[in-house]
Amino acid sequence: MATIHFTKGQGTGNDFVLYSDPEGRLPLTPAQIAEICDRHFGVGADGVIRAIRSEHLPEGEAALAEDDGATWFMDYSNADGSPAEMCGNGIRVYVRYLLETGLAELDEGATLAIGTRSGVRDVQRSTNGFQVDLGRWDLAGGEPLVRAKELPVARPGLGIDMGNPHVVVALADESELEAADLSYIPHLDPVPEHGANVEFVVPLDPLVKDGVGRIRMRVHERGSGETLSCGTGAAAAALAVRYWAGEAAPNNWRVEVPGGTVGVRMFPTEDGEHVALSGPAALTFTGTLDLA
């Protein structure tokens, strides 16, 4: 019977099961991933991350073609076993795992390139953990109507492409944010072809303090349900609120999620505006799983 040695990690409560498979010899099936992520009968997690060398996956070969320094690939799957393009909290936890298991090194001020299904992402150490350059973002187009359980009327959402799809919904106040029952999948009209993560957001009072924007957010992640945090979702929420607020809005944001606080920063580059996400990443325990 095959076994895997795993590590549990989390970034602002967004939790993952990580395991090392450098040569790509121990892939998990979607059913196995779903069983591992089950919070009653498995380890329990929002997703599974396989540490695999980029050369052993077609998507990883594409990452190496983009940046030959991206020797490690983040093979991330949602809790239901479906593959995901990118995870902002997950990549910080993944880098922590690579460093603490001796698979990679990252000196102060240096950058570690990580392959993902959305392309290569660069990670650096930060004062509170790690910062990842999430790359360029785009308005996904359209304003789908979003219905969520315990919200009385449908609300327009704003589509944001972070390399994975998001729809951000502004709510009237914190009571609406608390009332939304995100154990049910929000309904989008029209339905995106590949689904979407849905973020519900309210501004803090004041919205901007000491030049930093401040918002609260809850999220229903495609393939995982409501999670305590979503890194790319926090970036999408900050981008949406800045878009709604107009040209005077800041480029630095603090996003409060149920699992803590992350930082979002927008900055110009030669290929367009990029978004950086910063926040903590911790490894909590290790164990062994028998794969029946």
Report on this model:
The longest helix has 15 residues, at 231-245. The termini are close together. The protein contains five helices and 19 strands. It is of the alpha+beta class.
What percentage of the residues does DSSP assign to strands (E)?
Answer: 35-45%
Provide the low-confidence segments as ranges. none
Strand count, sense and barrel status of the largest sheet are: 19 strands, mixed
Number of helices: 5
Q: What is the H/E string?
A: EEHEHEHEEEEEEEHEEEEHEEEE
> CA-to-CA gap between the ends?
7 Å
- Determine Rg (CA atoms, Å): 18 Å
Total beta strand runs: 19
* Bulk shape: globular
Helix content: 10-25%
Q: What structural class do helix, strand and pairing data support? A: alpha+beta
Mean pLDDT: 96
